[in-house]
Amino acid sequence: MHNGEQLLVDGGLLNNLPANVMCADTDGEVICVDLRRTFVPSKGFGLLPPIVTPPGLLRRLLTGTDNALPPLQETLLRAFDLAASTANLRELPRVAAIIEPDVSKIGVLNFKQIDAALEAGRMAARAALQAQPDLVR
C-alpha cells in the first residue's frame, strides 16, 4: 500500500510473530499463537508418467532432474519464513503461554480450509487452558 512516498507492507514479512515487541511493552503477560511451521516441502506435481516424455525431457534440460520443483509461491513464502524472526518464544520474558495449532496439513494459501484452521486453533487453545488453568482469571 502506498502512503505518500512510502510503501507499506504487512509486518509479517519481517516479523511474523512479534512476541519480542509485545514483551517489550509492560502492560501485562503475552499469549502467543504460533503458526510458524516446520517446513515440509510439497511434492510439487510429482514425476511425469513415462509416456509424457517431451515435458520430462524439457524439465530435465532446464532443471537437471526429473523431479518436480516446488511451486514458486511456496518457495517465496518459505523465503519470507526464513527471513522473519526466529526467536525462541520460550526464552522471551513475560510469555505466559504459547498456543501452537496443528496446521501442518493446511497450505498457507489454502483459504478453503479456513474452518479446519479455526478448529485447530480452538483445539490448541483448549489444550493450553487445560495445561495452564491459571491463564483464566
Question: What report would you give on this structure?
Answer:
InterPro entries: Acyl_Trfase/lysoPLipase (IPR016035). Keywords: Membrane, Transmembrane. It comes from Mycobacterium tuberculosis. This is Transmembrane transport protein. It is built from four helices and four strands; from the N terminus they run ββαβααβα. It has helices at 19-24, 53-63, 72-83, 114-131, and strands spanning 2-3, 6-7, 30-33, 95-99. The protein is extended. The longest helix is centred in the last third of the chain and has 18 residues, at 114-131. The strands form two sheets. A two-stranded antiparallel sheet has the order 1-2. A two-stranded parallel ribbon has the order 3-4. The protein has one domain (10-38, 48-135). The protein has 137 residues and is an alpha+beta fold. It starts with a strand and ends in a 6-residue tail after the last helix.
List keywords for this structure.
137 residues; alpha+beta; two-stranded antiparallel sheet; two-stranded parallel sheet; 4 helices; extended
